[in-house]
Amino acid sequence: MNILQQYGYTQRVSAHFTSHFPDTDLNPARVIRVDRGRIRLAAEHGILIVAAHQDATTGDWVALDLSEPDHPVVVGVMPRLTVVQRKKAYDPIAEPQVLAANVDIVGIVVPIDRPISANRLDRTLVAARDSGATPLVILTKADLSNRFDSVVAETVERAGSVGVVTTSAETGDGLDELLTRAKPGQTMVLLGPSGAGKSSLANALVGRAVQNTGAVRAADGRGKHTTTARELIPLPGGAVLMDTPGLRGFALWEAEDGLDTSFEDVENLFAGCRFTDCQHGPEPGCAVQEALAGGALEQRRWLSYQKMERELASLRRRQTPTRNHARGLNSRQRAKEEVLDRDYRNRFRQP
Ligand SMILES: Nc1nc2c(ncn2[C@@H]2O[C@H](COP(=O)(O)OP(=O)(O)OP(=O)(O)O)[C@@H](O)[C@H]2O)c(=O)[nH]1
Ligand SMILES: [Zn+2]
């Protein structure tokens, strides 16, 4: 395997590259990491550091002009095969921010040493599906499974048809299975909250200390950010790991968590509606309609709110049957669950 292949250069990528850059003088290279003003590239003959290109992000395939050997230059970026992006809190107009390019597997890291955040998991599953890559839920710290025994079952339920692998960086359990899920040439990114064990997993997968792992602050179970730049790391077996602190630590998550509060102004209006079960349509005394008419609430913002509600509702509908089934609820219990599900926003507020 040459260096390019270690970083995911497959027949498929090669075909895309030559169709997009027919000029045979241009060479394929992959962005390993982006630093201020410079990017690190994997090219056929080795690792290069070149001047940054405004459109190139980690994981991108770029066209390299090597005609001046001392001054290799990135002259173009191949259209991305997949894109993991942050959508700004359901603002339909804002440009999404690209977080990772050309990822095949989005590994959603869920630590089992703390209670699950259902909201976070749901939203990350949606973002992962949107990316065009295959989502894979990775449970970490399996050796600590005695702490919260519901986490595994609940994660499996919420994951639905998405695969779940249970791992421990400590004991090595599940690492081989995870490596077989990532085929040679595939790129896998790890997403998850701080302290979830992503760096430890990366270390264990690579089999050597590639990232500094930091001790979790004991008091709140949260980690400190120990990795400073996202980068690609070749794995034994031919797959590539993308370790992305910016993305994994807060980017997607912050947007998601922000949702709970970002529509606070809208939700505060509901208390002013005449009927407690107001659908905020044509019924009399609707505070939302009044706010819209009076200009206190922007139409666009109300549409964004409704869009988010619909997306969450459909997610919930898809999940409910499996979840109830898995929990072996009888029909009366199910009916009760349906009522609870209707009030999904309250559900999401549960810790
Ligand atoms: N017992 C046990 N502890 C683990 C395991 N994996 C990680 N940890 C511990 O969990 C803490 C956080 O692990 P990290 O790998 O730094 O977590 P991270 O997700 O990379 O965190 P950030 O860099 O903040 O995003 C560390 O104290 C690790 O030692 C595991 O499999 N078992
Ligand atoms: Zn209303």
TrEMBL record:
PROSITE patterns: ENGC_GTPASE (PS50936), G_CP (PS51721). This is Small ribosomal subunit biogenesis GTPase RsgA. GTP binds at residues 140-143, 192-200. Its EC number is 3.6.1.-. InterPro entries: G_CP_dom, P-loop_NTPase, Ribosome_biogen_GTPase_RsgA, RsgA_GTPase_dom. Gene3D superfamilies: P-loop containing nucleotide triphosphate hydrolases, Probable gtpase engc, domain 3. Its main location: cytoplasm. Binds 1 zinc ion per subunit. It comes from the Bacteria.
